Amino acid sequence: MAAPKVAVVGAGVVGLSTALCIAETCPSCSVTVLSDQFSPNTTSDVAAGMLIPHTYPGTPIDVQKQWFKETFAYLFALSNSTEASEAGVHLVSGWQIFKNTPTPKEELPFWSDVVLGFRPMSEAELQKFPQHQFGQAFTTLKCDCPPYLLWLEKRLKATGVQMYTRKVADLWELHSEYNIIVNCTGIGAHQLVGDEKLFPVRGQVLKVHAPWVKNFIRDGDGLTYIYPGIHRVTLGGTREKERWSLSPDPGTTKDIFDRCCSLEPSLRGAQDIKVKVGLRPSRWCVRLEKEVSSRGGVKLLVVHNYGHGAGGFSVHRGTAKEAARLVGECIAALQGSSSRAKL
């Protein structure tokens, strides 16, 4: 059969990484990325891009850990390369702190042996945070956006992947042009495939200029965080379930700033404050599976990879590799049916 044509719908961190993994593992394919938004206008551009996993209740922990390990290893190699600064990938050390004694799961999270140098904080370190009882120190990775998305786009173009701005209202509109569709539409899947299990968790963050802040600080409840990037520091945040508004809320901006300043008082001197809002595509578990849908005897092969919630950056490469493997299975099935047809 002719080279299989694959369309990846969505150009956030999950869509671009998935397209890259498909291009790398199935070089005989023709891969196209279709999206109504590219960087700097994706949800991924709002995210802080920190590799600190969020747990998906409906996904086995060993699977989540594998996704995180693969993502961490990929980005660690990138942070150790000449492309690190262009890709916006760097190591960052800091603290996760708790007001109360943490649960055993919080005290030793499943990812503690993947990040670097994970250990309990000393009494002396905790003096920085008088309101907190306990904390952990470790080094992890951060992807700055838009640089990381632009680097992925550059890699895709170098491997011959086409990218087009196009609003896809129904996956079936692609069936005459492509053999396999990969759905990486994030919150867009709510409407595109009618996924009622998918809901937005609204996140509002501030991106500020405070170059003296070098260490990350994350409150254990995950609501307040300070994540230094190469050029700007991301201050957060909010987790507002089922709220679809993309308009910044001035009261929320003040609340986030005050909360972050209580952990790092020097932020009072931060300048050039920009407010960003994104909708995290949240569900009980990441939807990562093959689906064969049919209409009037015509089959459409779809691979879904969406619903990463607040943890997209932490697992993006691991889930992209799994999605590429599923695309490989679809291609094998197509080639099998095409050779049977010849017989």
TrEMBL record:
Swiss-Prot/TrEMBL keywords: Cytoplasm, FAD, Flavoprotein, Oxidoreductase, Peroxisome, Signal
Protein's name according to its UniProt entry: D-aspartate oxidase
Cofactor (UniProt): FAD
Top EC category: oxidoreductase
Predominant place of localization: cytoplasm
Tree of life domain: Eukaryota
Residue numbers binding D-dopa: Y225, R280
